[in-house]
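help with this record:
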Amino acid sequence: MFRRAGVAVVLSILCMGAVTAFGGDDSSEWRQRKVGKEKAAAAGTTSEDVAEEIRFGREIAARIIGRYGLYDNDELMKYVNLVGRTVAMNTGRQEIEFRFAVLNSEEVSAYAAPGGYIFVTRGAIEHMQDEAELAGTLAHEIAHVTQKHIVKELNIQATDTSAASSLARLIGGTTEAARTAFAQAVDKALDMLFKDGYKREDEIEADRTGVTYAAMSGYDPAGLPRYLLRIGPAKEKNTEVLDKTHPGFQDRVNWLNEKITTDGLDAAGAKTAKERFEKAVRKK
């Protein structure tokens, strides 16, 4: 049985920065910045860029939590983190620590905030049938972070060699103009998540990258397209049509299946972990 998270848990995330639901804390964030310095530099960014991306994402994550609330179910939260972090280990962004949480909503949705904050709703989990579907969904959201879709769409660019240093100035700025610009950037990011959606090419990239992450983690790569095929009709019926630039569910399933076949990702032995999923999710 799912319950709404208590106020104390949410406050620990928003005010103290402990990010309890995500399985992390400020000390672990300090460690990841230290360990990730060389990896970030190799990727063309600095450790400061990464730290500010995390702080920017934390603000967005706080807004998402404020909108839906969290499940008060520690065992489920640990399980989702275990699956998510297993997938995250096979990404190209080892300089950040991914954190996962379940939202207290019947909506069938999942969200990603810069810096590695990943959410899935209880409505989405209730429509899943095995762990491969959960892993595929989380992998898609992870890919939005690894490919920096929100940061790139906001066109946050600097005049120097650091692609994210203007973001750092926004977050660290003390002037009224800096605070206003930061608030506007957060609002635009939330519009992308809740209203406008990602660009078509970003969704395609997240799908194709995510299914590769899932396969590399040992999961059945067909988990995501199988899940999309099941929820697609209801989602398209009950969700406003954005515009013709956004892909439909059947289109996503088609290109995912093509990707799986073309890249030979459908190798025998990939797991669905159906029994483990049912034990973790259906347990009362």
